[in-house]
Amino acid sequence: MQENDLLGEGLNLMVFGMGFVFVFLSLLVVAMMAMSRLVGRFAPEPAPAAPRASKAPAATMEADDGELTAVMTAAIHRFRQDRNRH
Q1: What Cα–Cα distance (Å) separates residue 19 from each residue in 13, 30, 57, 59, 66?
Q2: Distances in Å between the alpha carbon of 80 and those of 23, 66, 70?
Q3: Per-residue pLDDT tens for 64-82?
Q4: pLDDT digits (tens, 9 = 90+) for 2-60
Q5: How far apart are the first and last CA of the chain?
Q6: Up-side HSE of residue 76: CA atoms within 13 Å toward CB?
Q7: TM spans, by residue (predicted)?
Q8: Which residues are within 8 A (CB) of 53 and not within 5 positions of it... i.e. 6 or more apart?
Q9: CA–CA gap between residue 80 and residue 62 (Å, rounded)
Q10: Helix intervals (H) in the chain
C-alpha cells in the first residue's frame, strides 16, 4: 500500500468512528430525555413533608454540647500530640 492509501484509510476510519460515536451519544441523550418526560408524567415528585419539631428539651441539648466540646477538644489535643511526634 502506498502512503496516500494508508492515510486515506485512516481518515476514513476516523470519520466513520467519530460519526458513529456522535450518533450513538445523540440517540442516548434523546432516549434519556424521553424517559425523563415519561417518569415525570406517570410518577410525579411527592410533595415535601413538613419539618418536624424536635422532641428533645433544650436542657438536654446544652449538656450534650458540653460533652461534645470536651470530646472534640481531647481529640484535637491527641491529634496535635501525635503529629508532633512524627
Answers
A1: 10, 17, 65, 67, 64
A2: 57, 21, 16
A3: 788 889 899 999 999 999 8
A4: 878 899 999 999 999 999 999 999 999 999 999 999 998 888 777 788 777 666 555 55
A5: 65
A6: 6
A7: 12-34
A8: none
A9: 27
A10: 3-42, 58-85
Dihedral over alpha carbons 75, 80, 82, 83 (to 10 degrees): 140
**Phi-psi group of 73: left, alpha or beta (phi > 0 → left; psi -120 to 50 → alpha; rest → beta):** alpha
Q: Is the pTM of this model over 0.90?
A: no
CA 33 to chain centre: 20
d(CA 70, CA 62): 13
Only one residue has cell 410533595, namely 47
| Closest among 5, 25, 24 to 13, alpha carbons compared | 5
* All cell numbers assigned to 72: 472534640
